[in-house]
Automatic annotation (TrEMBL):
Transmembrane segments: 12-33, 64-85, 92-114, 134-151, 158-180, 186-206, 218-241, 261-286
Protein's recorded name: PAP2 superfamily protein
Domain Phosphatidic acid phosphatase type 2/haloperoxidase: 92-200
InterPro entries associated with the record: PAP2/HPO (IPR000326), PAP2/HPO_sf (IPR036938)
Organism whose genome encodes this protein: Micromonospora auratinigra
């Protein structure tokens, strides 16, 4: 029993660290992308670069984004809660629902209260004001993370990769459609990640005495692959944006096709990489916060 309590304590510490790190990362992204001229310029270049080949992807992008509505979110949340309930996990059903609701409400509150200074870098969208974090991206990411929590261990890895892929596509779609800046999508993933860590702590608090942590449910290799792909994508994004930052003296609408494409593609890689890392962190610890139950 003492060993089990110690393991639970270390898991709780790890979840607190994850929540704090992702909150700090959100603040850094917000501060750099919204309150510095370089950050606003990089976002603007990515948005300007989305015009390259846009006519070929307008249809699929619109279908992806238009499928995300309040009704679809409520229906998906109900399905996720139902999966937890048919597994006999009432606390899990409540936690998954709170995660989705909390992440999306937090996103809307932040978007409303955060202020975006106008440095004259993106006059075309200056009147729109702040758009960080992205609501559509938060919807997709919160559903993906909640799905990782509620799915049985046998299909959890498949759900993690499909969910992360869907959330990545949704985030890139908001950029491709010109609805959101890339930093908006990255910030939304970090909000969801922080809520996932908080949800994990809640599940630990209500964990039954009959809980049995099984090493076979750890999915270490799958989490390492998903996280590794995410880190690789973030590295590619960092290299692309570093190369682009050296040209920050040029207005975005005066850049040639090459830097515009690098800005767009590098930002898209950063979006995909962020959700890959967030999903991997959830997958790596889910067997401890949603363990098997004896009997």
């Amino acid at each position: 029993m003492r060993v089990r309590e110690t393991a639970r304590g270390w898991t709780a510490v790890w979840l607190v660290v994850l929540a704090l790190v992702q909150t700090a990362a959100f603040l850094l992204v917000w501060r750099f992308a919204v309150h510095t001229e370089l950050g606003q310029w990089l976002d603007t270049v990515a948005l300007t670069g989305n015009r390259i080949g846009q006519d070929r992807i307008d249809g699929p992008v619109d279908r992806i984004l238009n499928a995300m509505s309040v009704v679809s979110l409520l229906a998906t949340t109900a399905v996720i809660g139902f999966i937890a309930l048919i597994r006999g996990r009432k606390a899990l059903a409540v936690t998954a629902t709170l995660l989705i609701a909390g992440a999306n409400v937090t996103t809307q509150v932040l978007k409303h209260f955060l202020v975006r200074p106008d440095f004259g870098i993106d006059p075309e969208r200056a009147a729109a004001g702040n758009s960080l974090p992205s609501g559509h991206t938060a919807v997709a990411a919160s559903v993906a993370v909640a799905l990782i929590l509620v799915l049985p261990a046998k299909v959890r890895v498949l759900g993690a990769f499909l969910g992360a892929g869907y959330a990545a596509v949704a985030g890139v779609a908001t950029l491709s459609a010109g609805w959101h800046r890339p930093s908006d999508a990255v910030a939304a993933y970090l909000v969801v990640g922080a809520w996932a860590a908080a949800g994990g702590m809640l599940l630990l608090f209500f964990q039954r005495d009959t809980a049995e942590i099984s090493p076979t449910d750890a999915h270490r290799m799958a989490a390492a692959v998903l996280g590794g792909l995410g880190v690789l994508a973030l590295a590619v994004s960092g290299l692309a944006l570093t190369w682009l930052a050296a040209r920050s003296g040029t207005p975005a609408d005066e850049l040639t096709r090459r830097p515009l494409f690098i800005g767009y593609a590098g930002s898209a890689a950063g979006i995909a990489g962020t959700i890959g890392v967030v999903a991997a962190l959830v997958l790596a610890v889910v067997h401890r916060v949603v363990p098997r139950v004896k009997g």
